[in-house]
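Checklist before submission:
- one chain only
- standard amino acids only
- sequence pasted in full

Submission:
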Amino acid sequence: MSLRIPVVAIVGPTAVGKTSASLLLAERLGAEIISVDSRQVYRYLDVGTDKVSVSTRRRVIHHMIDVADPDQTFSAADFVMGCTDAVDRIRSRGRTPLLVGGTPFFFEAFFGGMLSSELPKSEEMRRELEEIASEQGATTLHSMLRSVDPVSADRLHENDIRRVVRALEICRLTGDSVDEAWEKRTKLGDHQRYDVLYLGLRRERRLLFESIDRRVGEQFASGFVEEVEWLLSNGYDERFPSMQGFGYKDIVDHLGGRCSREEAAERDARQTKAFSRRQVTWFRKFSPIVWYDTDDYAVDVIIDAMEGEALHHLGR
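Returned file contents:
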């Protein structure tokens, strides 16, 4: 019999329905949700990250939301430490931890032992940084590195995109400078501690893209631009990783007169769709995983099936 702690996680691409499914499943399981989202960790980034409302969080307790200010760098190492603490506290109260989100490298860090004696890698993050270099230029990428690791920035030429990307990848995953990460190289957490069952949601690409378009439209109609205006007025600008996310950087460009509101929304939707394709590819590698097609089954049927799988895995 396994001595590992059984836990359940809901994964899937952006706009597939993870949030609504997780709330229903959490109430059935007596669970508290741990958000596995690299942007929801930041305070004040609410509209553009689709955080659940405060009233919803009173009904179903959420963890790992609003744990860092936008001018902080929140690393995978920070997530592992925070998530480990959350799991322990939830279980100590006789509740069930339910991990929910769409950030593959956070799941990898927590369950996959990514933060081991070797310096961590994340294909997802690397592609995201390469896209920033492609769309915004090598100078922007180099400036991002300088804000978190000036020593490495001095060492690397801004046109050496491959090494600049790698340095940023290490900084974001470990929370340290490259030199500090090399000095530490200690293992964080114990990926052998947990026995995870992944419950995956998926949707036919055309329908998923339609959902993304709707979500972006709703965000822009619900104060997304005003949210970014407020962040900029308080000094939280594009220097910080929190403001490099889809939509945020595009609205910064719009407010700076570099593109129209409509162009910002279109860029946001396009980048989110590209990211969703990468999410699907990445989550296919997760195991063990049970997939549910949201196109083929009603929500209550999917939740019933998820509940059965979860209860069996949890030994209840």
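Reviewer check: The chain has a mean pLDDT of 91.
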